[in-house]
Design a protein that fits this description.
Helix content of chain A: 40-55%
Strand content of chain A: 5-15%
Number of helices of chain A: 21
Order of helices and strands of chain A: EEHHHHHHHHHHEEHHHHHHHEHHEEEHHE
Radius of gyration of chain A: 23 Å
Oligomer: homotetramer
CATH architecture of one domain in chain A: Orthogonal Bundle
CATH class of one domain in chain A: Mainly Alpha
Shape of chain A: globular
CATH superfamily of one domain in chain A: Hypothetical protein af1432
Largest sheet of chain A: 4 strands, mixed
Distance between the termini of chain A: 59 Å
Number of strands of chain A: 9
Chain lengths: 411, 411, 411, 411
């Protein structure tokens, strides 16, 4: 990779969350300029959550830049503590974080549960990284190895992907900032100041323990208050149902107008092999963004199929289904009763009603034990998992997923 | 209109700029729920400015709610100072501000200069207000009269539209917040606390003079640093040229794919009368949003017409034309030279080159003298125009528009 | 009490934490103007903590105004939810919170452990409230009853004093703000919005549970990171020792110069009865503030007594003793060894060395179970203690005090 | 000077305004630890202004650290733009800014107009710097030369002292932050990012022009709204009168109790020569802080002299004189009339009444033309004074001092 360039050629971007973000190197600047990353400007970080929190329309592009900024901060802190990180390694880690979200499509979860079931967004990210690496003549190889975890300096990978990665540090802060849920704000500055390395792995200084406790609690709060907010959930489920319905109609040969890029995915069921053998599919994917979905909904709201039309209009006009949340599953009888009750009103079959009456469950662990623990390092060099180090957080509760069941039906 | 409802039925919205925003009344809540206002969720406040300031993707919907919030604050302040404002008047003023941006299409200026030349967004706002008023059985009549300025309590109109209206107070603060240009932040709280009424007109208490000075300087700073930022300007000009080209091709009978709502405006040149006599046109308008334009650009980037294809791709990938700014006009020779230089490279005719090489001028007055002065009121009851009251701002300079000429051409 | 006054006579105070604070009533304004409350301008909220966090020099006066502001917010929220709170009750609750910190002397804990052992600050607060009530011709009686908890509307007392009182909500936010420990910031706005009343007691709406969890974690973080910061602790212990030494010398008849008000307390050991029978003692107390202590230290740094001189100079110049923290008590042998080691160096007796070598322990419960629980109310009207309602916080851990032992000795 | 130390030995201070402030070098850390700088912890930045803005109790110590932080930022920016600044020069500039406020006594202006008339705070700063330089074995020589302006790299001096120095950039931001006058906030980050050097002098990049305009307007606003706020003015004048009276009584041989350090200055009229020849005087000065003054006022409120007693009590209890402000001088008749009116009520002589009835004038220039202009540099390398470069600020008005006359008298 290139060596760092003098300042005058560097670009600075204004970010409402972190302030000025400098791009410290030409290849990183070129990477940001690439259409694959520019596309992230057109994909909202939180999908339909802005139906609940109107401010939360920030994009994956902003988040990518923010995580990139925190990577620079973390590397500076670690270097200042005496750890060797070469310029090449630094650039590679920066490039890795720039590319970490490449594989996200619009409304990621909706897409992954409907039109692109065969790969998840991390698979696609890797495919796109390989493409970019060709385009940049192999200059991104080190970055990709960091992304995959193939590096002796495992902490570089952990900065990109772990329970304390800069991805999380940025998105929690950013989602909190834009949604206006100020309680979710985390002390990313302080947490980064507390990072240390032991045996090439990321650990946290002992005095950072309260910051980590607070980080975990804030994360949990953001889950229940924002990411799994029931109104956002029902909107997303309705979008999933709309896309499912559109594909079914399309596969049955009905006309379901959409932009050409979206049509590709409506009309076909691609498996992973198709992605690998037919470059056109990935090409189309790299053009997809929120606009294709929203434009389609606007056309579909006038579709002959009443299910598709009704779901589309409801999302656009924010006339959402009613949603109930419970700690225990909803009975089949209850679900059937809801279907029967409304089906005449809607003039739909029982099968069609399943697009409007359905159940699901969501869950979240505040902290995952296993391979990716957050470890606290003490002055004597010993380390302890945060769930053991904290005298407040309940070790078992912390790592046990909390499940909630939801039931949606028309008002 | 209805009387205020008890709190439990009121809705609260989280806003990152103002905090919690309460909707104090049922009719106002229903108005916000209406698809005409929900549409504003899909129109960015600052169009393509996010190409410069990635955070600036906030929507007209957020701004509308923010201005609505400030209206409430202003009315409370004025009532606390002993001025009579009835509940009906308050609700009407709130409704007026909720509707003030209804007529904005996606990328307003681009559209008003190309596809919808015959009306400006204020005309369309009024048409839509009338429609809403029918829908709400005349309950919005008072709001519309306030919007038009047909009210004895002129200050209510001035809160909606003047050089110190809540529209401006919100958008300056909000645009500053989301762009990250923190210097543009204004003390909207303090300014509102300083509002007074004299002869039914809005004035500012004497001790608010420094706040107003600062408001004007911040506004000016936002103009040059954000609204008229040269990169945002060139992007907008390119979008205008893309839309112009698309319509020309369309009028020539070429196929220019787009969503049905956008197609309507590409294929026809509607005059004001058409809008008034054919309700379908306004219907289509109320569906148009940013997604139609962005989706179209993504399709057009592969269009046979090289001009349209190139402009579309350039906007999407942020490969913008070079732009020069000058205090004086650019010579015709210079413009022609640029066209000639590059036309062979592009394989375009001189006429086609005018989409890529062009000049324009932009201007801004920090303060407009005339009918809508900002007046300072002194303890003796006398008033003075801010440009006279301030011993620092240059009276002439303040109100003289500053003009800049721009020249755009390929790199 | 008086009825609310028109706005123009109301005063507004600028607060960096909450913004504009209005004083909504004459008697409240007069109360704030009284020298007893003005004195709080000269007492820092966090004593010597500014030796660690230089920004933390905010005063008890600011905090008092801030808690006063939150009282107003809380009452508005509760009224809007349909609960009856009369103007008189509102004014009384406001007055109660204005007076809640009256009894704090300078460096409260230091004083309560040395010069004024017989009463704690709450006793003195009550004595001063009674005096003020006389001054205000009984107009503060209702406020005092609320402060004491003698009111049917127990929630008014709980707003003044409980685990979720406006005192705490303000000081956590304020101490976090001024110390710069941004992680301690709590969502006081949101918590207050979630307040409800059941059986005349304060409860929290079910959807506020995450906010309360976060409040408790933030509070805990503030304890360990700010209130019990080891450098602040050692400074406070040294101040206690300086005051103890000064009094001992004084009682032995040695001259220990100080302001007359401080001298009173150095030369005498007043018991509670003295306070009640001799009004001059309370008079002197109401003049004491941080300035008396700091001025005295500056004089004492040149005192003949080496212990007093050394302690005084060390605090002023921030040359603090070394402090060690441990989960288990320090052994007597270790303490003696430290004394022996340094006593020759200092030329002091073993007894004198106990001012420089000492141990102590500090403890903190994140949450106290017992009479003052924070209760969550569910939609069906049932309530549950937060430590049971939260599926994350460890019930036992939450309420178990965490103890730390400290050992201080010269470097 | 020493070379920079590894990070682990570096200290970090939490600042609510700038965040974490690192002390990058041992000598700088030792300098901060010195009692001369620690003393600034006990001197409020804004004296009695906290009587108006209760939050404004921040200290000169915090400000010193803040300016220190901005110095580091500015040096990094300039180095990144390719300007050579050696480690020694950087440390010297940092040391210079750490020492720039050394000479401030408590309530500086009050003291300089009464007890210490012969020197201003800058003279004393230099005396103290020389002493520190001896203590540090000459290691501060370069810093002192920068402070005095004796350096080829004039921009280093200008960072310490000019119309765009880091002193001003910090205090405007800090005073705005702590007073809660949020409109005074300046974009110090952006201004520093725009700094450049031409001919060894500090200039500002062309695109920074709006930031400078805003800086000047914010500064002006802070002057009228905070620094010259009429309530703060009258409080300061009363303090000056109290100190004058105390000295007069003291010189007449009356007992005026005070701490020994304050007594020195009450009982003597030192001229500059005394300071230079008698080191004890400077010693006493270095112990003086806000506590001496406030403690004295508390004692004096019971003094036999009614003038001293009344002034002291009034300041402490915030019962201030009435103050009127005018653009023109007040007539002698008016002043005499006020004296006559109240003198019987107070039982004072006409001469004594002059402590309670007096006039004065205050003035402020937003921008000073002359040797210390703020210059804008254009892309062609030419420079222009900001008052000429700005098309909005009125050149003449900008630099013309605005004068106000005040008249104070008892209510």
């Amino acid at each position: 990779m290139n060596t760092p360039q003098p300042y005058n050629q560097r670009k600075i971007v204004n970010d409402p969350v972190h302030g000025f973000i400098s791009i410290p190197d030409n290849i990183l600047f070129e990477l940001i300029e690439h259409p694959y990353i520019q596309r992230l400007r057109r994909i909202k970080q939180l999908g339909l959550t802005s139906l609940v929190y109107p401010g939360a329309v920030h994009t994956r592009f902003q988040h990518t830049l923010g995580a990139f900024y925190l990577m620079g901060t973390a590397i500076t802190v670690l270097r200042n503590k005496g750890h060797q990180i070469s310029d090449e390694e630094s650039i590679a880690a920066h490039a890795a974080i720039l590319m970490h979200d490449l594989g996200h499509g619009p409304f990621s979860h909706a897409l992954e549960q409907t039109l692109i079931e065969s790969l998840d967004h991390e698979d696609i990210s890797l495919l796109l990284m390989e493409r970019l690496n060709e385009h940049f003549n192999g200059q991104l190889s080190a970055a990709i190895e960091i992304f995959k975890g193939n590096t002796g300096k495992l902490f570089l990978h952990q900065l990109v992907s772990s329970q304390l990665d800069v991805d999380r540090l940025d998105y929690l802060k950013r989602d909190s900032f834009f949604s206006g849920v100020s309680e979710g704000v985390i002390g990313s500055d302080r947490i980064i100041k507390m990072l240390e390395i032991k045996n090439n792995e990321l650990v946290v200084e002992g005095k950072g323990i309260y910051s980590i406790e607070k980080f975990l609690v804030a994360r949990r709060l953001m889950y229940w208050q924002v990411y799994l907010h029931k109104t956002a959930l029902v909107a997303e489920k309705m979008l999933i149902n709309a896309l499912k319905r559109a594909r079914e109609l399309s596969l049955l040969g009905k006309e379901v107008p959409a932009t050409p890029f979206l049509e590709t995915f409506l009309r076909n069921r691609f498996c992973k092999k198709d992605f690998l053998t037919n470059p056109k599919i990935l090409d189309d994917f790299t053009i997809l963004d929120d606009n294709d979905i929203m434009s389609a909904l606007k056309i579909w709201r006038n579709h002959d199929d009443r299910v598709l039309a009704c779901l589309s209009a409801s999302i656009l006009d924010r006339k959402l289904l009613r949603i109930e949340v419970s700690d225990t599953p909803f009975s089949d009888e209850l679900i059937e009763r809801h279907k029967e009750e409304k089906k005449e009103l809607f003039g739909l079959s029982t099968e069609e009603m399943s697009y409007f009456v359905f159940t699901d469950h969501v869950s979240n662990s505040t902290y995952k034990t296993g391979g990716e623990n957050i470890n606290i390092i003490y002055k004597d060099g010993s380390t302890k998992d945060i769930s053991r180090a904290s005298d407040m957080l309940d070790h078992t509760a912390l790592s046990k997923p909390v499940s909630k069941y939801i039931l949606c039906y028309p008002k």
